[in-house]
Amino acid sequence: MIDTAYENPYLLMTPGPLSTTEGVRKAMMRDWCTWDDDYKEITQAIRSRLIQLGECTPDHYTAVLLQGSGTYVVESVLTTVLDDDSKLLVLENGAYGRRMSTIAKTARIPFDIHSFGETNPVDPKVVAARLDADPSITHVAFVHCETTTGMVNPLEEVVRVIKQRERSVIVDTMSSFGGMPISIEALQIDFLISSANKCLQGVPGFGFVIANTNALAQCEGRARSHSLDLFDQWKVMEEHGGKWRFTSPTHVVHAFHQALMELETEGGIPARAARYAENQARLVDGMRTAGFHALLPKAQQSPVITSFLYPSADFSFAAFYESLKNQGYVIYPGKLTEQMTFRIGTIGDIHPGDIDQFVRVVSRLHRFHR
Ligand SMILES: *Cc1c(COP(=O)(O)O)cnc(C)c1O
Questions:
Q1: Which end of the chain is less packed: N or C, by CB atoms within 10 Å?
Q2: Where does the record place the Aminotransferase class V domain (predicted)?
Q3: 3-state SS, residue 7
């Protein structure tokens, strides 16, 4: 029996932080020491498990954990990997792609942007043409699942055209890794970025990079920031058996270790991906019946988060949000610049039965509002 004081007041239907299991939350109820072998072994176990989850072999790939939210890890990769002789091409179709450009600009990394607009997927043919036209581009960065809209970009096709042209690939799979299978090694992705509090169902506090070991090994001395030096972070973890360079989020690391064990019990990424896909399909169907239409066509929707258009010009998101929160569900505002939307996440400890219940509540509320 858990103390009711720790029960969740609502289900988080957001893209992270998200609803976690009781097991994950319980792993944080102790104060753990750092530096000793027990703790370092947990870090090492997490690192090797991440490599397996990315379908990589430890001969060619390595995992590095880094304190902070997901953006810190994106910044760490961009500012450690690119030197002044490199040039980055950022493929944008939403706020998270845009954030990579902002990071590059702030760090004075030479870069170009190719924008596809917020409701179009990244087009591999356009990427190929852009790379053929500009041989000075050395690295390409893009977002797999653009959480701004819920758009899933064609990862395999985009990576393929970049690797065929012998450029390095940096991909932000923050909101998709763990919820969709990704064959990092088969695709030859150089740097893949994600975080603890999304599809792997941990809590916020650190993110990670799964990197081609040779590519990372070439980055010594390039970092433009000391605390975000990914090479240094990796060296210390590698050479000291799982030691973090600076104070690590110990509670969060234990919770993540538990979350990875629970992923295994669930049946690994294939089983989790199937549950999320089922959640999302039921959500879109149920919402349509309730009078809400998805922004994107089905083929572009990720299983992670879905954008819905406001049903009418006088729709009050604030009132809708409050009513749903009172009924035990927290949803997400929109982030689009051109269309009025809100978003609903289908990841975390949320199951198809929860979605069915949620859409019944939405149906009742929406009838009432009209
Ligand atoms: C969540 C997310 C991030 C990181 O956001 P933080 O607020 O820094 O954790 C980056 N990219 C994508 C696509 C995301 O969904």
A1: N
A2: 82-328
A3: coil
